Amino acid sequence: MQNTIKPFKAYYYNPEKVDFAKVVCPPYDVISADDQVKLHERSPYNFTHIDLGKDKPSDSKDNNKYTRAKTIFDTWVEKNIIMQDEMPSIYFYKQEYKIVGQKHCRVGFISLMHLKNDQESKVFPHENTHAHAVDDRLQLTKALDANLSCIFVCYADQQKKVENIFNHKVAASMPMVDVKDDDGVRHILWRLSDPVLIKQVQQTLEGQQLFIADGHHRFKVANEYRQFRSGSKKSISGEEPFNYVMTYFTNIDSKDLKIFPMHRIVKKFKADLTSLEEFFRIDRIKNKAELPILLAQAGRNEHTFVLYTKEGSRLLRLKNRLLIDEVVKDGSSEYKRLDAVILKNFMFDKLGIKSEDIIYTKDMNEVMSAVDNGQAEAGFILNPVRIEQLKAIALNGEKMPPKTTYFYPKVLSGLTVYKME
What we know:
The chain has 421 residues and is an alpha+beta fold. It folds into two domains: 265 residues, no CATH class; 119 residues, Conserved hypothetical protein from pyrococcus furiosus pfu- 392566-001, domain 2 (2-Layer Sandwich). Helix content is 32%, strand content 25%. It has 15 helices and 21 strands. Strand 4 and strand 5 form a beta hairpin. Helix 4 packs parallel to helix 5 and helix 5 packs across helix 8. The protein is globular.
């Protein structure tokens, strides 16, 4: 029987050759076009040169951003810019960050995760994937035979067994990487090569249900790549390198696992507020500074939103929960009770707000400034999804609406690479 997780000999930047602050980057799917240019210019060795290359007008089947990524990676290995670890290891990863001035610290680890067929898999996604994004990453994976960035997965460990191994056996040793990103998050990485301790981590995760937080496209790609590679083999042992995917694991029971809400900026909003009173109790918020506190307090027991317009802020609370099953036709009870689903069905659909008029952001201040500056007519500020909701929906085999969760902080790319040799 294969273990759920497995150590590997990661490729990583040679600290004698690079400044980590100049070479690591966010996950490719949160990098804007402007940021892509900045990161490319930051260093010739920035990881985006491989993970998020640029298209060129002269691209062909034999010369494109995927083939160039392979050439760049191979050249960096030759020049010892990137080197391979000597021992199979798992890599403990600590992120220190602040939210509204309060310090937080999330501990996890990077290892390989065993891939299984859908019927046997205990890995549960909660988001849909898009074919063009999957195809892009699949081409890159085929070109390099490598996982460049991690899937982000949550496991259960109420007794903090894995964290205790880190605290007592790893944290005092010299880290491989210690770097601050552009958001001020500190990322620290250590290796653990001791087979006895690795075995203890494996035993903690064995047989568990695992929940994907981020990296749904990477997970889909890993499974498609596995299918592609196994198609050419007469027999499969299950231990081939392509049967594993590089994954970041963190404890679902940790208070420092943060999910940010995704707020809605609405470009056109012509609603008469009296029309909303059929479904919502509406209270004016006099002091903008109280907005997050009132929203969080009301959201403990009710489906609550803040509507922000030039006329000020209003707290909207759904009057009658019994209407949810009448109005929301599709999905399980857990799905129907997501705030994002209620907002869409009770507000956007009834007011005729089109999806092309909605911009999503995790930043509440961005909502308010878009309205204040006249770029949008309204904004809706939401409470975050709770981890129990995510678990329930994933276990039901359902997918949340797009832009429902934002896990923070993101796992940096450029810390480790898994080459499937």
